[in-house]
Every structure is written in structure tokens, then in C-alpha cells.
Amino acid sequence: MNRGLLIKTIREVWAITAPFAIAVFIVETLIAYVLPTFSEQFADSWMGIEIVRKMLSALLSVDIGDQFGPHVFIAIAWVHPIVLTIFGAHATIFATRFPVGEIDRATIDVLMGLPVSRWQIYRCELVVFIATGLVLLAMAIAGNRLGTSLVSADQPWPVSSISIVSINLLSLFLAVGGLAWLVSSLSNRRGKAIAVVFSLLLASFLLSFLAQFWEPAENIVFLSILNYYQPLIIIRDGDWPTLNIVALLIVATSLWIIGGVINARRDICTV
Amino acid sequence: MSVVVTNNLTKRYGRRVGIEDVSITVGQGEVFGFLGPNGSGKTTTIRLLLGLLRPTSGESSIFDLDCWRATKQIKEDIGYLPGDLRLYANSTGRDMLRVFGAIRGRDLLTFGNVLADRFELEMNVSVRRMSRGMRQKLGLIIALAHKPKLIILDEPTASLDPLMQEQLMQLLREFASDGHTVFFSSHTLSEVERLCDRVAIVREGKIVADESLATLKALAKRDVTIKWKLGTDIPDVPNFLDLYQSANKDHLWQATLDGSVNELLDWLHGRGYDDFAVGHPDLESLFRRFYEKERVAK
User: Fold this and answer.
1) For position A152, what pLDDT does the model report?
2) Residue B155: its chain A contacts at CB < 8 A?
3) What are the DSSP calls for A33-67, one per residue?
4) How far apart are CA B64 and CA B69, in angstroms?
5) Closest approach of B123 to chain A, Cα-based (Å)
6) What is the model's pLDDT at position B250?
7) A117 and B72 in contact by Cβ < 8 A?
8) Using an 8 Å Cβ cutoff, are B4 and B26 in contact?
């Protein structure tokens, strides 16, 4: 690992990672604090309504049926669109830094004038990318823990379930990063690359959402990357979602490798 | 010993030709001028040498290593200044030397500071606050601070004032005299003429001339002005003079000399001229002539 490249990458990304980390901490704290306050009221008045149950199932990508309990609220904190948006946006912004970000701002000429290979830069970016994912995750867990303890000091906090959810979320983060990296390797304009990744993520989210209402969507929901992230089941049953994690890691590894190969072979042109 | 060698190097972007069959050789310690108008293929050639582009066909090597496959190794000893220089906006010059030094595994600050003094550049200013000229100086310092064996500069004098241009020329001469090789790309003939030992002219992706500066000067035409005495019969224009302006009333000829000065002197002998002047070999016109040839050929 080239120390100088690591320094360069860290210097450039801390400024974008810090706001995302703070944001996910605040959002997790608020969600973990606010939702349980309404849980009884919500269970009594709203869960009897079919459409509300459906909407909640759609959000959680799992049919919650009549099994409504505290685990649902804990799970919401990990699938809330704001939380997913923070993780998705960070993964996309980070993974499009190189090569397309450097090409777009034309700094790649100076960078590639140095004695570094494209694979070296790639490895460095990947290591720092995973590290920032861990930072975001740690902040999310810390926020969730703080929010839960603010509700009541005696409030149970399912450590093991949340650890498993975190690993599942990290796998999702890596897969989204892999997608962004692949698109980045194929692009010359960063704005366009980010737009493509966001469109794909939005499509994935909509597919998972619609699959709860609409049978044709249910048949192809396996194509959605979010289908492999279901915290409710983990929190409710405490089981390891091994298949989901493996599927996400296979997708992530494949996309990162394909992107790396494309990047190593492509022409780099800033004009 | 040859430092840069390209052999029928070709790069196509789909149907468009970037460069075609470019074959050049640059020896150690040589200051090589790579001359051509905008869009002629200079930058494409440099990008191929640096492994940023993959050749469609042909070969290129630096220090006997393949430019595509061994690009990382080659760049240990290359200093490169891009034509369209962009630097990391939030860093200062000193930060960049520190980080790039860490990437190269060398101390860039010591000689970088010497260069900064020569270029009169304040290194603690962030790139965002630098003028274009200051950024260009910083780009040059980054390219030269590790004292590379091969210096590749793509239109380096852009945005530099004349004093700094002269400073750069002086610095490059010093590098060359120490055995460093300079690959100097430019579209400005005068600066190539001031600095380079040898010049290749690239036009629409092809090398149209690759000669030493002395040979090019021998090929170049000279401007000639002849003033005939009043009342003298004006002779017919000889075939070695290409008259481009004739003011018969004033008995004044302006022409380019397509032959030797001796030939002109012999011809003038005994003819009634009042005055005449022969200019220096005009590379600019030679350069234009190469361009015209291409246009006519098209």
C-alpha cells in the first residue's frame, strides 16, 4: 500500500465523511428516541389499517403481518429512507472519486504522472472506502444506542441483532460502492455517473417497495439490491441472514473487480 | 542511448485519428521540441508515452520499457507537466510537494523550495487562491522537484510571464547539461527555437519533419528585400526568389529566398540595386510551409 496515496485519499475524504457520519448519528438518535414514544399509540390506532401495515411492510421489505412489536420500531431505524440515503449517497460520492472524479476535474493528469499504477490507486481507495463505511456504521450504532437510552435507561438494546444488522448494512454499502465504482470506471463525467447510480438505487428501492403490493414486481424483486437487506427479520428472529450477506458480498466483489479491470484497461482522456 | 522511442505509434478514437505512425527517437541529454498546432496530436502522443492511453497499434518505450505495461516503473524517473494543468484546489504548494513526495518515496521539499525561489512562488498559498501563472509554476516545480531523468512538458510556458519563461528555459538548459532529457511540446516556434536541439513537427497526427534545428534552419527560407535604383530596368524574377510583394513604382521587392545567399549575391552582382537585406532563416515560414503542404495534400 502506497503511504502517500493513503494520505492523499484520507485528506480528501474526511471532509465529506465527517458530515455524513454526523448526519447518520443524529438521524439514528432521533429515530431511536422518537419512534418508541409512539409505539403503543401507533399499534392501537394505525396498525389495524391495512394500508398502513402494507406501507410499513414495503418500507421494511418484509411482510410484517400481525406481528407488530418493538422489533418493528428498532428495524425502522435501520431501513429508514434517510438512513439508507446517507449510506447510499456516501458510497456513491466516494466510489466515483476515482477515476471519473479525477477525470472530470482533470487532476488525473497530475496524479497519473506519478509512479503509481491504477490498481494501486484502486486498492487505496477501496481500503479507505471500507474504513469510512465502518465509521458511518459506528456512528449509526452509537446514535441508535444513545436514542434508545434516552427513551429509558432500562430499554433493552439487542446488541447481537444490531451487530448482525450492521454487518448486513456494511455488505449493502460495499455493494452500492461496487456499483458506483463500476459506473465510475465506465464514465468520463462524474455528474452523469452519480445520476446513473442514483437512478439504479432508486429503481431498486421502488422495486422492493412495490413488491409488497404488486405481484409482477414480487417476481423480479431478487434483482433489487435492497432485497438482500432485511433488518426486521434479523431483529425479530436473531438469525444470521447468511444468504443475503453472501449475495451482497458476491455482487460487491464482482462489481469492484470488473470495475478495476475496466479501469486498468481504459483510456484516460480529460479533453 | 535512446530515452524515448516510438515506432509507428498510432492511436485512433473510433474513426477519428489521434496520431498515426509516429516514430520518434529522443536521446539522453537531448532537448527535443515537439511542435505542432493545437489538436495536431502532441498531447495524444504524450498521453501514450505516459500510459494514459493505450495505443491502437505500434510501440512506444521509455528507458527501454514499454510505456503501457511498465508505466509505473517508467514514471519513477519522469517529471510531467500536463498541458491543461489542474491541481488539488484545497492544498497548498507545500502540501502537494509533501504528499507527492510521500507517493514517490522521495523528498521533494528540498529541491522544490529551491525551484520555488527561482520561480518566485509562495508555497504556503492554497491552489484555490493562486493565479493561473502561479499554478503553472507550481506544476513545473512538481514536475522537476525529484530531478527526473526525463522531463515531459506539454506547453509549459502558457500563463508564464516573459521573465519566468526565460527562467524556465535557463533551468531546462541546466537540466539538459546535467544529462537530463527534455521533451518539450509547444505550438510556439520561437520558444522551441530558443531551447531545442532537435524538432519534430506534428501535423494532423503525423510527423511531417524530424530534424535538428540546424538542418531545419538550412531548410528554412530567408526573407529578402531588394530596393532597385530609380531609372533602372527591373530584371525578371529569378527562380530562387519567391516574390510575395512587388511595389514596382518604388522599385521594391519583398520575397523569400529559396536558395543560398551566395546564389543571390552572384545574381545581384552588376545589377542596379540600391540596397538589399537578407533576414535570418525563418522557421515560422517553414512551419507554415509544412502546414500548407498538408492542406494542399488534403
Assistant:
1) 74
2) none
3) HHHHHHHHHHHHHTTTSHHHHHHHHHHHTS--TT-
4) 12
5) 18
6) 61
7) yes
8) yes
- Amino acid A218: pLDDT: 87
Predicted TM-score (pTM) of this structure = 0.86
User: Cell numbers at residue A51, please?
Assistant: 394500508
Residues 108-137, chain B, touching A (beta carbon < 8 A): none
Residue pair B200/B259 in contact by the 8 Å Cβ criterion: no
Q: How many CB atoms lie within 10 A of CB B244?
A: 10
pLDDT number for residue A143: 95
Are A105 and A12 within 8 A, CB to CB? no
Name, in order, each residue with C-beta under 8 angstroms of A94's C-beta and a sequence gap of 6 or more.
Answer: A13, A16, A17, A125, A129, A132, A177, A180
Q: Which residues, including other chains, have CB under 8 Å from residue B235's CB and lie 6 or more apart? A: B271
Report the DSSP beta bridge partners of residue A128: none
ipTM of the complex model? 0.85
Task: Check CB contact of B80 with chain A, cutoff 8 Å.
Answer: yes
Q: Chain A residue with minimal CA distance to B48?
A: A267
Positions in chain A short of pLDDT 50: none
Predicted pLDDT at B297: 44
Query: Per-residue pLDDT for B291 more than 70?
Result: no
The Cα-based distances of A218 to A76, A202, A225, A241 in angstroms read 21, 16, 14, 20
| Contacts B104 to A, Cβ<8 Å | 4, 114-115
**According to the model, what pLDDT value does residue A47 have?**
65
Residue B82 forms contact with A (CB below 8 Å)? yes
Omega of the bond prior to A99 within 30 degrees of 0, cis?
A: yes
